[in-house]
UniProtKB/TrEMBL annotation:
This is GNAT family N-acetyltransferase. The keyword Flavoprotein does not apply. Signal peptide: none annotated. Its EC number is 2.3.-.-. The keyword Acyltransferase applies. Residues 1-155 form the N-acetyltransferase domain. GO terms for molecular function: acyltransferase activity. It comes from Nonomuraea guangzhouensis. Keywords: Acyltransferase, Transferase. The lineage of its organism: Bacteria, Bacillati, Actinomycetota, Actinomycetes, Streptosporangiales. Pfam families: Acetyltransf_1 (PF00583).
């Protein structure tokens, strides 16, 4: 069963975040709390959304996403931040069902893109995505600012004012 996440799903979702981070060899980077997830997903102005898949009444996987925008297409799209299905539940169609739900939302709302990132060593995921018809954007490189570099850049903006 695929459904929109509820605030009651937050503890299970945070556990899945930890499992995903461990799988991606980045467990030390997780700082999210239940309070933070509750606020961004269900606060006064949610800008992040989530769907979960249930198996026997338990959350077995999730998709966390937000709206993106394409100036070239002139429409919103969906950026899939995380897609995770517990290892014991993989191969049951849950990942595909979560992606299909996001594709349905795109089609229903007139969005032209569903995008995400995948680690280049994650061959099982890459193969799964390719089977769905997704194509890698080999000419694009994602950049990220966090922690001290982000703080320094923000301070340079304040100094320029």
């Amino acid at each position: 069963m695929i459904r929109r996440a509820t605030i009651d799903d937050v503890p299970a979702m945070l556990q899945l975040v930890h499992e995903l981070a461990e799988y991606e060899k980045a467990a030390h980077e997780v700082r999210a709390t239940e309070e933070q997830l509750s606020e961004v997903l269900f606060g006064a102005e949610p800008a992040v959304f989530a769907h979960v898949v249930e198996h026997d009444g338990e959350v077995a996987g999730f998709a966390v996403w937000f709206l993106s925008f394409s100036t070239w297409r002139g429409t919103h799209g969906i950026y899939l931040e995380d897609l995770y299905v517990r290892p014991g539940m993989r191969g049951s169609g849950y990942g595909k069902a979560l992606l299909a739900e996001l594709a349905r939302i795109c089609a229903e709302r007139g969005y032209h893109r569903l995008e995400w990132s995948v680690l280049d060593w994650n061959e099982p995921a890459i193969g799964f995505y390719r089977k769905l018809g997704a194509v890698p954007l080999d000419e694009w490189t994602m950049f990220r600012l966090t922690d001290e570099p982000l703080k320094r850049l923000a301070e340079s903006s304040a100094e320029a004012r």
